[in-house]
Design brief:
Small_multidrug_res, single chain, about 0% strand
Length: about 110
């Protein structure tokens, strides 16, 4: 259950990163409100997952999901560039996430 909460927390992290971008530096009300709400949900789920997962594993996986998710949203939704070097960086992040999962005893 902790891993499921952690994955969902990561998805909410992607959501708040996107809504933060849409808030235009917190100058637009509703994207700003959505950002804060999604941040709170993400952090509460992360904290719940950390009850049984190691800190280093949980935080690394959470930020990795957020980083890769935001990267993909940037490419797909915001038309950001998908250069070979950026793709390699994403592959390395995913590799790190997988290694953290595999090395975890939980």
């Amino acid at each position: 259950m902790a891993w499921l909460m952690l994955i969902v927390a990561g998805v909410f992290e992607v959501g708040w990163a996107f809504s933060m971008k849409q808030s235009d530096g917190f100058t637009r009300l509703w994207p700003s409100v959505i950002t804060v709400v999604l941040m709170a949900i993400s952090i509460v789920l992360l904290a719940a997952a950390m009850r049984s997962l190691p800190l280093g594993t949980a935080y690394t996986v959470w930020t990795g999901i957020g980083a890769i998710g935001a990267f993909l949203v940037g490419i797909v939704v915001l038309s950001e560039p998908a250069t070979a070097l950026r793709m390699l960086a994403a592959v390395l992040i995913v590799s790190g996430i997988v290694l953290m999962k595999v090395s975890s005893t939980n």
